[in-house]
Amino acid sequence: VFPSLAQAQASVANEVYQELGQPPVFLFCPTEYCSSLCSPSPSQSCYLQTIGQELLPGIGVIWTGPKVVSQELSAVLLEEVEAVLRRRPVIWDNLYANDYDCRRVFLGPYMGRAPGLMSRLHGLLLNPNCELQANFIPIHTLGTWFQSELGSCAPPDHAGTWSPGALAALQGAQDGSYSPQEALELALRDWVVEINQQALEPGR
């Protein structure tokens, strides 16, 4: 019925999207969802070119970056992806994912994402560690990174009790800069508070 896989997928996605009344959030994950899966490259991929042409403009397209688990995301790469998809991508960030390797748990800060990245994105999804409690630092530091992207983070009233590193992280967010190390210190400070509160709960 269809001359290519991409046209078949776009046709089905478009029909479902329209049948649901064109909801404000409707995401499509392409078969080629990162640069390493594209042949020969994202901009020259016949598959992605077809998806960009055929998929209705209100449908968001998921992208993981250079690889399935990308250590870095650059604005240059996202510009290339945006051009071929004819829309800004929704990043499906697997930086912390460990469902493929249960021996791996990433407790470091959110990092390797270029400043000013949000202007090139339609959205960002974080795929966390499978272990619930291990995601406090990932999610907390993602929040600090996002605030730095917005450039509008206001310190809470009790900021005077914070460490110099935590205050620097907040000041950096206000200035539109982001330091993974300072974000980590801020996250650890809040995580200790959370752990102490849980320890006081009955049955803990």
From TrEMBL:
InterPro entries tied to this protein: GH, Glycosyl_Hydrolase_84, O-GlcNAcase_cat
MF terms in GO: beta-N-acetylglucosaminidase activity
A Gene Ontology biological process term: glycoprotein metabolic process
SUPFAM superfamilies xref list: (Trans)glycosidases (SSF51445)
Name of this protein: OGA GlcNAcase
Transmembrane stretches, start-end: none
Record-linked Pfam families: NAGidase
Domain named GH84: residues: 1-150
Domain of life the protein comes from: Eukaryota
